[in-house]
């Protein structure tokens, strides 16, 4: 049985696993706000993990940094990509905790294709306003390192089907990707497109597995609202460290249960940033980076 930690405050309950620092359960007054997964087993579909030191994909598991080519293991063989970083297989270590908060840490690298050393810290804080997560990365080596991060929750608005959920978030463009490998093609405006959710509307049958940008930040925060027509809902906010947002409608081939939650992943950089360099974080020796996000009931 894997180690896990439970937080309770303000009507909320959160369960975080040591493996991957994954958010396994988040409930408000007994209602699921994310798609949970069973205790002690594997983590399906990267649910709730911290994806670092890169979010999303690296094409062919190959990238260059400071004129040196690196090859990380491919873990998405059907698309020949390296997916969601190196931290998710790791058991994170409890640094400190109390009734409403906990901090888990892990060290990433040096390892095959990532000859750098990052000290990661994930702090989870629960109060009457929801679950707040802060991830800090510190470069513990004497050379610069490439870095990116995102969370990977699948949000649940309520008991109605996902097609009926009403989605709203302020992003004016999205990253078009290749249909076979989901690798970047170019940024496209959402105006007149099925991906325009700047005004609240039902998701319908639209299939999304794309990164959005041109995100509006109000007072330093961006916000997403997901509502069930039955009256319940879930929201997510994040800070300006994450100018990209991956949305995925969790479409699966039969007989696998499909569209059971909406993946909402605020990202510091877009897919394949280790190759494009787009908003890739360069962590100098000894430097740190912090990203923050919150999930709450509506």
TrEMBL record:
MF terms in GO: carbohydrate binding; isomerase activity
Gene Ontology terms: biological process: carbohydrate metabolic process
UniProt protein name: Aldose-1-epimerase
């Amino acid at each position: 049985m894997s180690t896990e930690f439970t937080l309770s405050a303000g009507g909320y309950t959160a369960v975080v696993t040591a493996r991957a620092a994954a958010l396994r359960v988040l409930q408000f007054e007994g209602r699921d706000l994310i798609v949970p997964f069973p205790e002690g087993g594997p983590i399906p579909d990267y649910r709730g993990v911290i994806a670092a030191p890169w979010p999303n994909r690296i094409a062919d598991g190959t990238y260059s940094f400071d004129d040196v080519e690196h090859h990380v293991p491919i873990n998405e063989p059907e698309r020949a990509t390296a997916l969601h970083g190196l931290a998710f297989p790791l058991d994170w270590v409890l640094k400190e905790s109390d009734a409403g908060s906990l901090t888990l840490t892990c060290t990433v690298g040096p390892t095959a294709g990532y000859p750098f050393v990052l000290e990661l810290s994930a702090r989870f804080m629960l109060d009457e306003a929801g679950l707040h997560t802060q991830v800090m990365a510190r470069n513990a080596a004497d050379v610069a390192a490439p870095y990116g991060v995102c969370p990977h929750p699948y949000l649940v608005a309520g008991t109605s089907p996902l097609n009926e959920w009403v989605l709203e978030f302020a992003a004016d463009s999205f990253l078009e990707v290749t249909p076979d490998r989901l690798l970047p093609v170019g940024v496209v405006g959402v105006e007149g497109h099925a991906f325009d959710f700047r005004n609240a509307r039902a998701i319908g049958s639209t299939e999304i597995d794309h990164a959005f940008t041109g995100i509006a930040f109000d007072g330093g925060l961006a916000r997403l609202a997901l509502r069930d027509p039955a009256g319940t809902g879930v929201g997510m906010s994040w800070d300006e460290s994450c100018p990209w947002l991956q949305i995925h409608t969790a479409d699966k081939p039969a007989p696998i249960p499909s569209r059971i939650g909406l993946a909402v992943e605020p990202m510091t950089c877009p897919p394949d940033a280790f190759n494009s360099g787009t908003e890739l974080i360069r962590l100098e020796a000894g430097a740190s980076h912090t990203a923050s996000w919150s999930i709450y009931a509506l």
